[in-house]
Automatic annotation (TrEMBL):
Residues 42-87 form the Transposase IS204/IS1001/IS1096/IS1165 zinc-finger domain. This is Transposase IS204/IS1001/IS1096/IS1165 zinc-finger domain-containing protein. It comes from Desulfobulbus oralis. The lineage of its organism: Bacteria, Pseudomonadati, Thermodesulfobacteriota, Desulfobulbia, Desulfobulbales. It comes from the Bacteria.
Amino acid sequence: MRDTDLFQMALGLTPPWQVESCEFAAEQKRLDIRLAFPRGSVFVCPQCGQADLKAYDTTEKSWRHLNFFQHEAWLTAKLPRVKCDHCGVKQVSVPWARPGSGFTLLFEALVMSLPGPCQHEAWQSMWASMAPGSGAW
């Protein structure tokens, strides 16, 4: 089994999303998983639900995911925007994160399960690590 197939199944990705590549940097204790969609894929307008919209353009975004053993894991994807007949150009929603979040839903759920004071410290630490110039983006 290829690493991309393994992570595809582990992340529970469904079409059109797929794992394009994985890079493991032992020295940095980091796993980077790149997600993509095939050319010609169609999406739904996140505002009104109009279906079968092709990508208008894309922008790259990364999300902090659950650790892979003791290594940080990051998901990166070129997020499509669609041009809806009713709503104009809109960024599509992804199944692994809330709109505008830099964290996956599973990562946010883990932090929310921490006791109150730990939760606050964890959020502060994570946001500090993602600040401009930190290298996280």
